[in-house]
Amino acid sequence: MAYVRVRIRVAQREEALEALARAVRVRRVRAVPGGVELELRARDFRALRKALRGRGARLHILEKRGCARLRLWARRHAALIMAGAVMLLLLYGTSNLVLRVEVSGEKDARQEREMRAFLAEMGLRPGVWAGSVDKSGIAEAVRRAFPGLSYAGVQRLGFGGMELRVVQAEPAPDVYDKSARVDVVAASGGLVTRVVTIAGEALVAPGDTVVPGQVLIRGTEEMPHAAGEVTARVWAEGAGEAPLFTSEERETGRAFTETYLASSFGRFPAEEAVPYASYREEEEGEEVLGGLFYPLRLVRRRVAETEVRTQRRDVRVVRQEAEARALHQALEKLPGGASPVDKRVEYSMIEQGTLRAAATLEAVMQIGREESAAD
After folding, report:
1. What total of structural domains would you count in the chain?
2. Starting from the edge strand earliest in sequence, which strands make up the sheet with 279-289, in order?
């Protein structure tokens, strides 16, 4: 329900109130100096103005409540409401249009191009209405057209996107000939710690040292395809170095500054000789006179004497740095699948104040791999 609160200023208030009581239904009334304030329904406002006509009354709207206030706001912001409605319509339209088509799970670039062309033939292309796309029908057609797929599905993808997602069929596992002779050989050298024979005859035992390529489990006439696991300890070595001293070049405090003019013909005044054995110089300048043939710059040159100071580093830090480099090199030399179980690091001094670390890593790994036996 909409209500309006108004103020009426009239000379003969009693007569005006009687006329209003006959014309409209007043919700609230309050006397104010020189008039009266009324609250009435918005639909009775026209009747109120008609009843006051010819009585010399001045009518002033103080407040609008409920739907009346909303209608007033809507009239004042009609352009904004219209623009918002248009934006909502455009947003709804664009969100239901296919703006881009994506393909995921394709085998290679060629298959992606073929799938995109097939989708376009089926009617799935940018610019079509998303609701008109037969997603299940297109997915079924893709599965028939590309037999190497185990799954194909079409689905919405974000704002304005449509995606064809496919999954390539996994190839069947290789079937080997059970009668073919296969041995388990050492992929890496090491000290055997455990032998588990599943098929065939074990040729090594815990405590044996093996080399790469050595037969560990041999296939037999009854079980030509040997199988099993052979665990061994393997080792890798690495070396790392770290300096015991650091050198830093510092200024001694002695310095001089000169200013000169530089051009394509030379400088003025002539360059001042540097009286220091070791120094650092800095120059900064600005152009005084430009031009292709007569460039002229004002340069300020600062020359500062320097000296190299050597400082001994913390021995613990040096040891940690050399050890980390040695262990990193040893880890890179370990065969794949090896799990380190122990380490040993030895330190030695070498020339020019450098500490050298030699690291040995011990690891455990499964060294057996199947290989066709030589005839």
Report:
1. 3
2. 266-268, 245-263, 296-312, 279-289
Residues 53 and 110 in one domain: no
- In the chain, what is the straight-line distance between the N-terminal and C-terminal CA atoms, in Å? 102
Handedness of CA 195, 196, 200, 201 (dihedral sign): positive
- State the residue for tokens 């370990």: 334
Burial class (CB in 10 A: 0-12, 13-18, 19+), 22: exposed
Could you list the residue range(s) of the whole structural domain that residue 45 is in?
3-74
pLDDT in tens, the chain (375 residues): 677 787 878 766 666 667 776 777 777 777 777 777 878 777 777 787 777 777 777 777 777 776 656 666 667 777 887 887 778 777 666 667 888 888 888 888 888 889 989 998 988 888 888 888 898 999 999 989 998 888 899 988 877 888 888 888 877 666 666 678 899 999 999 999 999 998 999 999 999 999 999 999 999 988 899 999 999 999 999 999 999 998 888 999 999 999 988 887 788 888 888 999 999 999 998 887 765 556 788 999 999 999 988 888 898 999 999 999 999 999 999 988 899 999 999 999 877 789 999 999 999 999 999 988 765
d(CA 60, CA 14): 19
The token pair at 169 is 């069929």
Q: Is the pTM of this model over 0.70?
A: no
Q: Which of 168, 197, 219 is the last residue of a domain?
A: 168
User: CA 165, CA 162: separation in Å to the nearest integer?
Assistant: 10
Query: How far is residue 225 from each of residues 10, 55, 185, 186, measured CA to CA in Å?
Result: 117, 119, 12, 16
Cα separation, 62 vs 374, whole angstroms? 107
